[in-house]
Amino acid sequence: MDEFMVQDAFSPGCFGTAVLVTDRISGIELTLKKVECLDEGRANQALDEARCMLNFKHPNIVRYRKLFITWDQTISSVFLSMVMNCPHRTTLDGVITTHRDNKTKIRIHTIKAFLGQMTYALAYLHKDNIAHRNIKPSNIQLSGQSTFVLFDFEPATITRDRARVKQRLKKNLKRWLAPESLSLNQWTEMSDIWSLGCVVLDMVTCHLLNMDSSVTQLLRLHQDQTPLKVIAHSGLNQVLTKMFRCHPNKRANIWELVEESLVKSCLQHCGIFICTVERMVPSGVHEPPLHQGFDKSLEFMERYWNVESVQLSVLAFLLSDQNNMLYRVSDVVQAVTMAMHRHQGCAGVQLEACQVLQGRISALLAESGDISSLCSRTLVREIRRTIQNFPRHTQLLARAFLLLSCLAPHDQEVVELMVSPKGMKEVVKTITTFPGERDVITSCCKYLRSLTGLGVRVDGVALTGAVEGLCVASNTHTQDSEVMECVCAALCFITLQGVSDEKDVEESVLLLMHTLMRHNTHTTMVKHILQALTNLLNSSELAAFRLLLAPDGGRGLGLIKEVKLHHHDNPEVIGGMCGLLRAMAQYDSVVSEMVSDQIPEELQEIVLQFEANEEVVLLARQALGKLKDSQ
């Protein structure tokens, strides 16, 4: 302490006292902060944690000069002392107070500069898992009109002293604290996000609220987001809504904020470009403890949620851990969903996450047939966001659509998201972009097939181009029975919605008939073909005319009669055939062709053969009745 000369004292803070000092040798003015510690051991621990601050090199973060421990004999206490630059005595707290007293707005230019620079500063800190833990206006200095400097960091050891922290926290200081800091004494990077949001909100509303009202407003956020209703700017409202989510795991992290349009404009306003930074495990921390098993690995994954290498390692472990596919499956799905959300720009994380989810969901389906507990709008949104973010990553697209196809039949909310116009356009775009990619086409078709039978209706405009894309895909994969089965199943869903475009009707019938010629012994495929043709016939007379002519120039009804030959003892196939003939017989213009092809005789045989099957007999007799009525 002898090397510094005290010039002035600042107001006592929540975690310690600060004084303005002058270095006796250089004459430079500095700030010296003293934080009382429980004992020498805690002081040394706090010193070790604070050493990283000596390496801060950022235009919006104060420069720390020296750290040391001192003993005050008069009160028998040990202190951690931190010496930092003090370039300016003006703080944001003083600016807000002036505008509050004068009832004047803080300029939007200033608020944008503040949000941009503080986002920049927190990105610098959070990439190395460093939290400030004490963000408030009095800890933000101003240089000139619109340059902000963050100072007065708190080591974790200091904030963990629950009794002392509670004693020092005054009501007007508590208003900046996140819910988990106030009630659970927990400080993390996510706590910084909440506190930064409080500062922004106070800057925006200081001309409207006195000090007491401001305190009430910020504390009210711990219950609900009513205080945000005063903000008319939709972009700012959206950003603050994400910053003020009470549960830290649901709160936006700094990397998500950087992607918000408003924050991007604030960064551009300041001339700042935040490049993608490889976040690392802090020095001294080992790789994921995979050798310690499932629980420790999942815990490590959550602790270092922002480190891509950790997420990839644990995801790979979860993928390989076949013996625990049903162990804590809900926790795994939640953790993996959060990993997808937090690492939206990493294709590796997204791919391995989809694979882990696929494995867990498949295992649960095999075990109980019920995955409703795992389905959520959040999960579906993350999978769809992956599709949107990586529209050309075929392996990832295939996994994502396949995963969605597994979820659809088990949750109505999931279905609603999938059949929205945007959801349909995503799958159609993928089909038309990658008709030659087997896995992509198969998963997209399974996605559409999963919606069949759920009673959903889709905006026809959203499906524009789907038939054309499937036709191109079928030309590429004609001989591949698995792909063609999926294509025909997808057409069942599309035709069920109604196909109004004449070209799509013709191409659909041609595709289905051509597939029937090549795969007429494939039972499941034939059933899909018959159903899709029936759907087309129910809404289009053109489909009936087109069905009369086979792709090879022969008679189309001859192909239908061959279905009876190959599947004569299968009531599901024969029932589908009768349903198709019934739909066709509603058009007088094709009845004569049906009669000349001896369709009535075929139906009579079916009635006799399946006399014990009421459903098949009913369909056959209805078709016969329509034929007789039209003659």
CATH topology of the largest domain: Transferase(Phosphotransferase), domain 1
What overall form do the CA principal axes indicate?
Answer: elongated
**Strands, total number:** 7
Gap from first CA to last CA: 111 Å
- Report the C-alpha radius of gyration, rounded: 34 Å
Architecture (CATH level 2) name of the largest domain: Orthogonal Bundle
The whole-number mean of residue pLDDT values reads: 86
| Poorly predicted parts | none
Give the helix tally: 31
Fraction of residues in helix: 55-70%
Question: CATH homologous superfamily of the largest domain, by name?
Answer: Transferase(Phosphotransferase) domain 1
The top-level CATH class of the largest domain is Mainly Alpha
User: Biggest sheet, open or closed, and with what strands and sense?
Assistant: 5 strands, antiparallel
Structural class: alpha+beta
Number of structural units classed as domains: 5
Strand content: 5-15%
Could you characterize the architecture of this molecule?
This protein has 631 residues and is α+β, with helices and mostly antiparallel strands. The protein is built from 31 helices and 7 strands. The strands form 2 sheets. A 5-stranded antiparallel sheet has the order 1-2-3-5-4, covered by helices on one side. The chain has a two-stranded antiparallel sheet with strand order 6-7. It is elongated.
Descriptors:
631 residues; alpha+beta; Phosphorylase Kinase, domain 1; Transferase(Phosphotransferase), domain 1; five-stranded antiparallel sheet; two-stranded antiparallel ribbon
